[in-house]
Amino acid sequence: EDVPSETFDNKDYFCGKETFPVYESVFTEEGETIRKIAIEIEKPPQIEIHVWTIRKGILRHFYVEKLSKREFEELPYFKLITRTTLSQWKIFSEGEAQISQMCESRVCRTELEDLVKVLYLEKSEKGHC
C-alpha cells in the first residue's frame, strides 16, 4: 500500500511547516558586488528581493524590492539555493536590518555570509520535529 508523501500540492513541508523557494544572484560591477536574495511568497503572490551593494567588504547600500512572479521570471542570474520557512525568513530579515546599520562603517563579509546560512533548513529525520 502506498504511503502518501508529505508534499501537498507539490509544496515541500518541513516538520509540518510550509517552505518557500529562496533564490540568489551575485554579480560584480565596477568594483561593487551586488548580491540579491529573493523569496517567493504565495500570499500575496510576489517575489521579495533583498539587494545588498558591497564595496571593499562594506555594505554600501541595502534595500528591498517586490516584484510579481512574472517580472521575476524575466530577470537573469537568479538561481534556486534553498527552501526556507517564513519563521526563518523573519529571522533573516531582522538580522539584515541589524547588519545594515552595523556594517555601514566596517567590513562585514562574514556577517553577511552567516546571515544567508540562516535560510538553510537542516533536514530533520522523521519523528524529530
Automatic annotation (TrEMBL):
* Residues covered by the Chordin-like protein 1/2 C-terminal domain: 10-129
> What are the GO MF terms of this UniProt record?
BMP binding
Instruction: Give yes or no: UniProt keyword Glycoprotein.
Output: yes
Cellular component terms, GO, for this chain's entry? extracellular space
Pfam families (UniProt xref): CHRDL_1_2_C (PF19548)
Keywords of the record, alphabetical order, are:
Developmental protein, Glycoprotein, Repeat, Secreted, Signal
Q: Which residues form a coiled coil?
A: none
User: Any idea where this protein resides?
Assistant: Secreted
* Any GO BP: cell differentiation
Its protein name is CRDL1 protein
Q: Which organism is it from?
A: Falcunculus frontatus (Eastern shriketit)
